[in-house]
Amino acid sequence: MIVAHRKHIQEMKSQLAEHERILVLGCGTCVTVCLAGGEREVGMIGSALRIAFRKDGEEHEVCELTIERQCENRFIEDALKHIQETDAVLSLACGAGVQTVAERFPTKPVYAGVDTKFIGVLQEQGVWAEKCIACGKCIVDSYGAVCPLTRCSKGQLSGPCGGARNGKCEVSPDIDCGWQLIYDRLKALGELDRLAQPAPLTDWSKSHAGGCRTLVRTDQRIATDRK
Amino acid sequence: MAAFEQGADGVIVAGCLEGGCHFQEGNLRAKQRVATARQVLEEAGIEADRLEMFNLSSAEGNTFAQIVETMTRRLKDLGPSPLRRSDPVEAIRDSRAS
Q: Among A10, A43, A56, whose Cβ lies nearest the Cβ of B43?
């Protein structure tokens, strides 16, 4: 899932200060699962904004709504009436959701209420960890299903850097050495010989380094595009 | 949060003793939510100490009274909520007079 973390209430408040009617718009997908921008957080943040505004003697109307997904126009339609009736939207979706809402309403100010962090997993209660940098060409099968580009702080494909101590990365003792994880995993699988194979060069043109990416699937296009 | 919006000076969340929740983990989840609400309140400009969760069983009347006294003392020290629009006692008197 995409992992996000809400911004400070005062940061949101200052973003929205000039708008009288505000919609706090939650997203029912990734940010709900990572407890950053789902229905529960919408209620909490909406309430906190009303308190913060009122404490400073400012009267703003803060409304709340959560839709299934903000990264898809079909679901944004469910918020059409609410968005039209407000002066600004505080989106609690990831960066994709915020931009999709903004593109759908070209003249409506849309603000991000969360910081989008990474593609990751819930590692344990209250801890989320990055697992994928969306490089565009998955190579984990060669590394025991551990991604060296993500899990190694230096993104090394040909082995460890030599800076790790006790299985921890030299960048931070809180980070596992990605190459220790790869070695342990391949050893458990009996596939350590994979490490004898030279790693191919990474095609970074398939990553964000190649520019903003678009995926086109002709099998999924509707008839108007098949003329 | 709604109570604070209405101008409450403080809120006590009373849960069952940890491990004794009828809904198994309900009071532990409530504890996490209260912790989040305290942080959000602080960011919004309301003292986090106006909100507190206590754990006690329904048979502990004396403990409940002590908790209420503790919170009352704390709230007197903190003073009224900055969101309170009128004195609630005066408001009741006014409503009775009219």
A: A10
